Amino acid sequence: MTDAWIALCDEEARDALRGALGAHDPSARLSFAGDAQELRQWAQEANGELGVMVGPLAGSISSVNVAAAIAHDESASCVALATHEPTSDLAKRAKQAGIDQLVDLGTWEEGGCEVEEPLLPSDEVPTMLFPSREPGDISALLSVPRVDDRTNALELKGVAKTCDQPAPESHAEERARPHRVGDGADHGGDGQSRRELTMKKAPVVALFSGRGGVGKTSIVATMGHAASSWGLRVALCDLDLPFGNLYSCFGLSGPASMLDASGAMLADERKLIEAGVHISEGLELWGSTTRPEMSELVAPHVEDLLDVLARSHDLVLVDTSSTFDDAVAQVAQACDRMLLVADGRPGSNVAQARLGSLAVRLGVARTRIACVANRCSARGKGDASVNRSDVGLETARVFRVTDGGNEVASCLARGNPAELFELGSRFADSTSHALAQLLAELGALPEHAEAKRALERKETRTRWTFGRKREGN
Q1: Phi/psi at 388 (nearest 5 deg)?
Q2: To which H or E segment does residue 101 belong?
Q3: How many CA atoms lie within 13 A of 14 on its CB side?
Q4: Distance of CA 401 to the CA centre of its chain
Q5: What's the pLDDT at 1?
Q6: Cα(451)–Cα(230) distance, rounded to whole angstroms?
Q7: How much of the chain exceeds pLDDT 90, in percent?
Q8: 203 neighbors 439 (Cβ within 8 angstroms)
Q9: CB atoms < 10 A from the CB of 275, how many?
Q10: Which of 21, 99, 278, 375 is the most exposed place for a label (fewest CB within 10 A)?
C-alpha cells in the first residue's frame, strides 16, 4: 500500500474522504483531481506509485465506472471506491470491475472508517484499506502536505518528473502532428507505434443489438463524426463482417477489407493499419469484408485488430452484427463499454434484455454495460424503455437518443453525417451528448469546446401549443 493518494469526488464529499484516509493513516498524503480525465492521466504518469480513491460524484458521471476505468488501466497501487452505505450489489459490481476496496464514508466520524472485507483473496490485497505504516516508501512525495492540512497542494505534474519514466505526450500535442492511415511517421523501426510506447490504449466503445434495424450503424457514424470534430483520432470498425454497410454512411463505394489478395487476414500490423480507409481528418474506417464468404477468416483476429486500433487512435467505435457470432463475442469481451441498442419496437427491448443476460453469462462486467434507447420522441412520449429486472441490466445506465426522422436516413444515404449537425438535428445532438458522457466516464473526454458543450447540453423537448394565444392577447 502507498501513503500517497489522488482522489476524485464532489466538493462536499472531500472532507469525508480526507477524514476516512487520515483516520487510518495520519501520514497519508492526499490531493484531488479536477475531473475523471485528469485523475486517469495523473495515475498513469505516476506509474503505479499512487493510490486512487473515487468518491460520490454528482451529475451523469458514475463513480463506479470511473473507478473501474482506473482499475482497468492497472495504473494505481490500489483503487478504492468510497460511498455511503455500500450495498452487496455494489460490492459484486466493484469486484467484477477489479476495484480493490470499498469504503463506507458514513462511519469514519464515529471512531474510524469501517473497511469492508477485501474484494479479492487476502493474499492478493491487504486485509485493511489504510493500514498504519511508516511513511517514506515513495521518497519523492515526502514533501506533499498531509491530509489534515485540508489543502490540495499536490502538484502531480511534478510527480511525473520523479518517476523513472518520462511523462507521456499530451493529447493536444499528439493531435497536432499530421496523421494519415498508414503514415510511417508514427511507427518506430521495430514496428511499434510511438503511441504504444507513451500512452495507454484508447477506449473501445461498441454497439450491439439482438435484432437488426434499431439504428446501430447510424449512431456509430454520427458518433464517429462528432468525436473526430473534437480533435480525436477515431477508428471506426465495422464488424458486421458479412454484410456491414457502415462505409455507405460516408459516401464510400465499398468496405475497407482486411483481407489480402489471397483472402487471408492481414497478419502484419503495419499492413493492417494501412488497410484502413481515410474518411476525413481524424476519421478512418476498417471493415467489413468485400467477400462475405471469407468473413470467417477475419473473425479469429478481431481481438488483435481492436488492440492494434486502440494503440494507434484516441477512440475506437465498433459496429457489430445483430447475430451474436464469434466476432461479436470477442468484441463484447474486449470493449470498454458495451452499448445495447433498442428502439422500442415490438421485440426490440426483449432482444436487448436477452443480450444483456448473455453478456453477463459470458463474464462481461455489469459496469461495462449500458443501454441506448434510440428513436425516442422529442416530446418525451413513448420512449423506448428497458426492463431492468432482466439479468445484466438491473443497474445499466440508459442513454436517450432522440428520433431524427427522415433527415437522418437522408443525410447518411448521401454520405454526409456532418449535415446532421449543420441542421441542428436532435438526433445528432443527443448522440454527441451520449458520447461525451461516455468519454467523461472513461476519462477520455478531450479538451475541446464542442466536446464540453456536448457534455453539458441539456435535453430539449418540443412543446406543442396548437396555435393557442394567451388570454388577453
Answers
A1: -75, -5
A2: strand 101-104
A3: 17
A4: 18
A5: 53
A6: 6
A7: 40
A8: yes
A9: 21
A10: 278
- Sheet of 51-54: strands edge to edge? 29-32, 4-8, 51-54, 78-83, 101-104
Concatenate the DSSP letters of all residues of 243-307 into one string: T--GGGGGT-SS-B--B-TTSPBP-SHHHHHHTSEEEETTEEEEB--S-GGGHHHHGGGHHHHHH
Name the nearest CA neighbour of 412 among 434, 427, 402. Answer: 427
User: Would you say residue 285 has pLDDT above 90?
Assistant: yes
Q: What distance separates the 2 farthest-apart alpha carbons in the chain? A: 79
CA 312, CA 181: separation in Å to the nearest integer? 10
Please, are residues 255 and 288 in contact by the beta-carbon 8 Å criterion? Answer: yes
Residue 467 falls within a domain, yes or no?
no
Reduced to 3 states (helix: H, G, I; strand: E, B; else coil), residue 320 is: strand
DSSP letter assigned to residue 413 = H
**Residue type at 213 in one-letter notation:** G
Query: 327-378 pLDDT, tens per residue?
Result: 999 999 999 999 999 998 888 888 998 999 899 888 888 889 999 999 998 7
Contact present, 431 and 29 (Cβ < 8 Å):
no
Retrieve residue 18's grid coordinates.
Answer: 480526507
Predicted pLDDT of residue 372: 95
Q: Measuring CA to CA, which residue among 416, 212, 397 is closest to residue 319?
A: 212
Residues 358 and 217 in one domain: yes
Reported as a single tens digit per residue, the pLDDT across 389-424 is 455 676 788 999 999 999 999 999 999 999 999 999
**φ, ψ for residue 278 (rounded to 5)?**
-75, 125
Q: Both 91 and 26 in a single domain?
A: yes
* 169 is a domain residue: no
* Burial (CB count <10 Å: 0-12, 13-18, 19+), residue 361: exposed
Residue type, 4: A
First-to-last CA distance in the chain? 72
**Do 198 and 156 reside in the same domain of the chain?**
no
Q: What angle do CA 198, 337, 291 make, to 5 degrees?
A: 90
Q: H/E element holding 18?
A: helix 14-24
Pick from 270, 315, 275: nearest CA to 298: 275
- The whole domain housing 157 covers 4-141+150-162
Model pTM score: 0.62
Angle in degrees, CA 257, 258, 263, rounded to 5? 90
H runs (alpha helix) in 373-425: 406-413, 418-422
Tell me how far apart the alpha carbons of residues 239 and 287 are, in angstroms, rounded to a whole number: 6
Summarize pLDDT for 236-253 with one digit per residue, the tens: 999 999 999 999 999 999
